[in-house]
Design a protein that fits this description.
Strand order of the largest sheet: 16-15-14-13-18
Number of helices: 1
Number of strands: 29
Radius of gyration: 23 Å
Structural class: mainly beta
Helix content: under 10%
Largest sheet: 5 strands, antiparallel
Distance between the termini: 36 Å
Amino acid sequence: SSVPKQMYLPSNGTYARKEDALEDALLVTDGFLVPGKDKGGLYVVRNPGNDLSEWRVCLTSVTNLKGDTMRTAGSEGGDWFYHRAVWMDLTGDGRLSVMAARAKLPLLPEGDKGVPQQEGGGKTPGKGQLVWLERPKPHSFDPETGTPLDVDGTVFDPFNARNTPWKLRVLADGPDVMFSVADLDPADDTIEVIASQFFGEKLSLHSLQRGPEPKIVFSRTIDDQCGAAFSSVLADLDGLTTMERSRDQPMVVDGGSTHISLNEGDAFSHLLVTSHECSYAESSGDAKTSKSSQRQEVRIKNSKDNPDAMKEVYDYEECKLEDPDCKIDGGSLFAYRIPTGKDAWRTEPWPRSIIATGFKVQGQLSNMINPGAPGFCYPFFPTREGGLRGTNGDKKWRRPLICLSGDCAESAYILRPTEHSDNGMSEEGVDKSTKYALMCEIQCKSTVGSLAIGYDDLYSAEQQSGYAKIYVPCYEQDKVLVFAMGSGEDE
């Protein structure tokens, strides 16, 4: 994300505005669970890729990939890697600090804790934390101009070497990869962090009370039967933005995706979570066998609504969270409905539906270390205007498409909603809003760890303006494929 440029105004105590951003700078999470890459950090990088003007600063304590030793922020050293970080005012004074999820891999297993093993190899035990890096305050202000000043009288810069690394505090143990942020009860003084715990193999919720000393005041486990949870993305599968909204409707704070389909303050109905599992396709054998060109089998729930779907798509019955016979096979994409009613999100089960399952790793030498599938999910609309309210408050499309990176499944997928005007829960307890069918599979024959979606025209290629462009990185092939959507009609 871009780096916020603070507006320090001591007269009214306001520190920042989100529209004041350094568009040429990025907040970068660094590190990964692959051995040798597991010492990461959080960086601010300006003019990235420019050999002459690139500038960067580390906000955390690490020994980075270039061997530069950084100072310690907090008391636990720098053997952490970071998956996700967001700018957020946690202190209530307008300062946009950083909230992040981080993880570390111990050199040796910590006792006999019965760490679960995956098919094809054991999972390395890991530890996760939700942390807060506080943006520093100016030392003083110029009495005449109000300019924020540092201790030596120069203009205050929170990214200056004397002000970094930023002070780090642990908010909660457990969150290690991705998270989203919601306000599940706009009437109280908390926001909720919903975290996918990869190492803990569960989905957790943490209510964060904002103030001078932010703290977690309530936590619960939403699901401990989801496997190695990965994505955590808020989605409006009910089309709530086309309806009259109640005051107590849950609101988006940060949707959890690099593609923004819901803005801060929007209503949402579901949480999308991927289960990143290491289950090998039958044709690939184990990680040491050569890659097979045979298509893997991906099952999409309720595919009978799409008679033109690929022959590998099958239908199966709705699975309940507590059902021991739930037909989950390998990696999956889940949708959790937010419980309705006062404080129901605190006490009631979050109904889980399976949108897709059966994602399998295509074993090869390049993905022998901690392979899994699928990767991240991305709700999006076919056109730029599709995700925006019109003058009448409606959207062009009521429900989003879902893009899904296969990771070691070596494909990218686009899922489309089936046509139903009566979304929501049926009398039988089936969540009709989670009915999706396979629209397209892009077979890449290489790892597809993440995706990007944009709407700008791509060079001079023939295309319909305003429609989505899907960028698919093929890791081992050193390529990025671009696919443009269109209306399907000749112009």
